[in-house]
Amino acid sequence: MSDTPKPDQFSTLTELLEATGSKLRLYDMGRRIQRVSRLQFIKFERYEIAWPAPLARHAWLALLQTGSANDEPVIWFLKLPLDEQGKLVQAARDYFVQRLAEVWALNKTQESNIPDALKDNPFVFKPREERMAAFHAKVSVDLKQPVSNFHAHAKEYFSGEAGWEQWQFVGYQGIADVAARFAENNNTSLITKAVPQLPAEPLTALCHCLENEEIPLPIAKALLERLQHTMDSGQPDIALVTALIRGISGTVSRTTLASMFERVMQQTAAQHVDVLTAVAGRAWNLLTDEEMAVTYLSRLANNSAGQEVFNAVMRDLLAIPALRNHLLSAAKNADIEQQMQIFQKSLREERKPDTSAT
Predict the structure, then answer these.
(1) Backbone angles phi, psi at 218, to 5 degrees
(2) Domain count, the chain
(3) In whole angstroms, what is the distance from residue 152 CA to residue 154 CA?
(4) Whole-angstrom Cα distance, residue 282 to residue 349?
(5) How far apart are CA 339 and CA 325, in angstroms?
(6) Last residue of one domain, picked from the residues 117, 136, 151
(7) What is the pLDDT of residues 162-190, one digit of tens each?
C-alpha cells in the first residue's frame, strides 16, 4: 500500500482508509453477513441515511482493505453505535478516526500492526469463530481467491460417501466454503440431497452458513421439508428448528419464506424464545407484512420467558427503519395492549436523565 496519509486531514473513515491508496470493501456483520456498497456507507457516514439492519442499536461492520497483489488484506471489525433514528453516532466514528490517527503517528507507517494497537478500542470487536469462517468463505469468493483446504473434505462429506455420522472430522471452514460456493461445481444439488440425511449438528452448522447467502429454491425447499419433519416429531429439537429458520431466511423465494413463517407460527414451538429471536434476527423482512407482523407480535407477547423478552425483541425490531411503522401499526391490531404499555413505560424510564449524582 502507499505511504501513510495524515489522518487528521480527513473527517470520515472512508476518506481516511482510501487515502492510503487501498481499495475498501465493506460487509455488514450483524444480522446477516453481506456486502455493503461504498455509496451506502458514505451516506451513512454523512448522516444522510439510517443503518438498514441494525443489531442491538449498532452497525456491525467488517472493513476490508486490499492493495496490490503482494499485500495481505487488512480487516477491521467495528461496531458503531446508532442514535434513536438508527443513524451513526458521529462522535463515536470521530473518536475511532482520532485513535487511528494517533496509532499511525506513533508507528509512522501503515505496515505496522494497527489492529493489535487498537484492540482495546471500544468500537472494535472480534467475531465468533463460526462467523469468521462464514466471513472468510464469502470474502474468498468475492476476491476470487482459492478455496480453503477444508473445502474438499466437507464436499466429500456432504456427498454421503464417507457416512453421515462422520461429521466430527469436518472442519467448520469447509462447511462455510461449501455454503458460500453453492453455485459452483454442482454444490446446489449436493446440499439439496444432503439436507434430509444430515444429523442435527452438521445441519445446524450448514444452516448458520447458508443464512448469509441468497440460496436457490431447491435448497430452500429441502430445508423447509426438513423443518416440517422436525416440527412434526413429538418433541421437536428447538435448536434445530431455530437453525433451519436461519438457513431458510436467505432464500430468494418470498413464497418459501412466508410458508416457513406460517408453519412455524402454527406450532407451540413458536412461543420459544430462540424461535422468536431467530425470526426477528434473520427473517425480519417478513414483518413488513402487517398480517404476519400481527401474528408474530401475538406470539411474542405470549413467549415462554415473559415481558423481558418481549421488551428486548421489540426494542431491537423497532430500531430497523423499514420495520418501525409496520410494527407500530400491527401492534394496534394485535391483542397485546398490556405488553405494549409495559414496554412503552420501560422506554420512558430509559430516556429519563440520570439524576443520581445530583
Answers:
(1) -55, -45
(2) 2
(3) 5
(4) 29
(5) 18
(6) 117
(7) 899 999 999 999 999 999 998 887 899 99
